[in-house]
Each structure stands twice: as C-alpha cells, then as structure tokens.
Amino acid sequence: MILVYTTHKNQAAAEKVAIYLLKKRLVACVNFFPVSASYLWRGQIKNEKETAALFKTKKENWRKVKKEIEKIHPDEAPCVIKLTAEANKLFESWIKKEIK
Asked: Which positions carry the signal peptide feature in this UniProt record (predicted)?
C-alpha cells in the first residue's frame, strides 16, 4: 500500500482531484488537511494556506496516479509524493478491493 501526498490551493481544488481519481478507481480513499506552507518560488519566499490531500492506493498504481494528478493539477510544479505504508489486513484488503 502507498499514500500519495499532494497539496492544493484550497479544499475545492483538492476535492476535484480526489473525485477524478476516485471515479477512475485509482484510489480508494482521500483525507484532506488544512495546512500552512512556506516555500521558495522563483527566488521569493511565499507563505500560503493550502489543502493537503492524502490518497490511499496500492503500490502498483503509483505511476498511473502520479500521471493523472500531474495531468489535471493546475500548479506549474505540483507536489506529488509517494509514501510507502503498511496497514492492518482488513484495511489493506478493502483498499485492494475498491481500486483497479
């Protein structure tokens, strides 16, 4: 199982990506978190409010999920990070059952 961490300009933008991936059955579940971010962008320090999303999927879907997020994410350089995870057997079984 993997978790795919992304950031979005707001909750609506994060939900748009989530619904897209859920409908394609590439992910089984998504959690959203309000976050504050400070980062360098083109030589300037930026301080922004964002929404982080944590997508749950199987490791075999990593390339497909990353490609689809990059295709529809509006940011020039979207944050798309793969995190390897282990979960209890019932949860992992549910994940595998729900996605392609």
From this structure: none
Q: What are the pLDDT digits (tens) for 20-79?
A: 999 999 999 999 999 999 999 999 999 999 999 999 999 999 999 999 999 999 999 999
CA distances from 78 to 14, 28, 75, 95, 99 (A): 12, 21, 5, 25, 24
pTM metric for this prediction: 0.93
pLDDT single digits (tens) 69-96: 999 999 999 999 999 999 999 999 999 9
Domain boundaries, the chain: 2-98
With b for 16 or more beta-carbon neighbours within 10 A and e for fewer, the 32-52 pattern comes to: eeeeeeeeeeeeeeeeeebbb
Name which CATH class applies to 2-98.
Answer: alpha beta
Supply angle C-alpha 39, 44, 46, rounded to 5: 40
